[in-house]
Design a protein that fits this description.
41% of the residues lie in helices and 15% in strands. By secondary structure, it is an alpha/beta fold. Strand 5, helix 5 and strand 6 form a beta-alpha-beta unit. The longest helix is centred in the last third of the chain and has 24 residues. The N terminus is likely disordered.
Length: 404
């Protein structure tokens, strides 16, 4: 049987059946959408693609200029350092101080990662023993669960459409658990729901973690894409460093997704564990990319404000235009995503089949909510990675589809 992976490449699933860790992973839900998208485009269809959260905005010029300048220096093209060059870790510390008023030790509390995804996955490998239980939000970015599943853990998904719902679910699960989980995963602003958590949420989650000796893994990849309240860091809570690690990424903030640059920061014990694992697996990101990342963090930040304004304008056009087309979508307070319930007349179809139908009939691609967890069923994720003109065209296509 042939299937398609997330990069659009075919592979034979029969060749994977004997691999222990591969067998733990469910079928990749998005592969059906990706395969259909490729088939329709091969047939000449103009697919308006809201499915993949790949930033379409350009990387800031001063960041690219720094990369070009640095890559021309022969000494920068050799092996780098797995935990990140000192200058980059210092730039990360300055960002946390400037943005959150949090002090970080550059030697013991920061590791540069090859995107936050790599840091999260390798941290899961570093701390997990077979059979450990992890509380993870559902719906959430698939790695939050499957990074730990690959490492041998058992996932207990807890409904997390909002931060309050997630916190209530954690308390309920702890009340009936035989023993606490090894770790709790937190992701706000959320991918895929776009919801945020305030400082009181983090205060409660830290208190719970300390009371039960639980590790907290906070994913803050969308820290700078917000439209209402400013998202806090978990480390704004006193004592959070005792129990927590936070991953953060330059991918969305500076439109550097393909550059693969991020950080894990926080608990010295956990950061040391991650650094130890990474020391066996990689030599860190390409040094010129790390130097350019310093330019992003330390340079002018008007590019971040401009990107935020663009995403907000797109969000507003999306919500307004889709409502006029007959599809009401809640307004997300943050992130580059809208979390949209299926139109009522398609509710029984399910998110995967609806996403495929929408692509065939309206030439609009979205991500099926079930791909983000059991509680994602009944929703689709819409990434605002097309310009306003394309968003309005999508709305016109959807209106025809819904009316038909």
């Amino acid at each position: 049987m042939s299937q398609m992976n997330q990069d659009g490449q075919d592979y034979d699933t029969n060749t994977l059946e004997d691999f222990y860790r591969i067998k733990k992973l469910p079928p990749y839900v998005f592969q059906e959408v990706n395969k259909l998208k490729a088939e329709l485009r091969a047939g000449g269809a103009d697919i308006i693609d809201f499915g993949f959260g790949n930033p379409d905005l350009p990387t800031p010029k001063h960041v690219i200029d720094k990369l070009i300048e640095t890559v021309q220096k022969p000494k920068t093209t050799g092996y780098s350092v797995s935990k990140g060059i000192l200058g980059l870790r210092q730039a990360c510390a300055r960002y946390y101080k400037r943005r959150f008023d949090v002090d970080l030790d550059v030697d013991s509390e920061i590791v540069a990662t090859i995107g936050s995804k790599e840091g999260f996955a390798n941290l899961a490998q570093a701390i997990t023993a077979p059979g450990d239980v992890i509380y993870a939000p559902d719906p959430s970015y698939p790695l939050h669960a499957y990074g730990f599943i690959i490492a041998g853990a058992k996932i207990q998904g807890i409904s997390a459409i909002t931060a309050d719902e997630y916190l209530a679910g954690i308390k309920k699960a702890l009340a009936v658990a035989e023993k606490p989980p090894l770790a709790i995963v937190v992701c706000f602003p959320s991918n895929p729901t776009g919801q945020i958590a305030d400082i009181s949420f983090y205060e409660e989650i830290v208190a719970i973690a300390k009371a039960h000796d639980i590790i907290i893994l906070s994913d803050l990849a969308y820290s700078e894409i917000y439209f209402t309240e400013i998202p806090p860091s978990i480390f704004e809570v006193e004592g959070a460093k005792d129990v927590a690690v936070e991953t953060i990424s330059l991918s969305k903030t500076y439109s550097m997704a393909g550059w693969r640059m991020g950080f894990a920061v926080g608990s010295k014990r956990l950061i040391h564990a991650l650094a130890r694992v990474k020391s066996y697996l990689d030599y860190g990101a390409f040094t010129p990319i790390q130097v350019a990342a310093c330019a992003a963090l330390d340079g002018p930040q008007d590019c971040v404000e401009e990107a935020r304004a663009i995403y907000k304008a797109r969000r507003d056009v999306l919500v307004e235009a889709f409502a006029e087309a007959g599809w009401d979508i809640p307004v997300p307070p943050a992130s580059m995503f809208a979390w949209a319930p299926l139109p009522p007349q398609f509710a029984e179809l399910g998110s995967l089949e609806f996403a495929k139908l929408l692509m065939r009939e309206a030439s609009v691609a979205v991500s099926p909510g079930v791909g983000f967890g059991e509680h994602g069923e009944g929703y689709v994720r819409i990434a605002v990675v097309e310009n306003e003109q394309r968003i309005r065209q999508a709305a016109r296509n959807i209106k025809k589809f819904l009316n038909a």
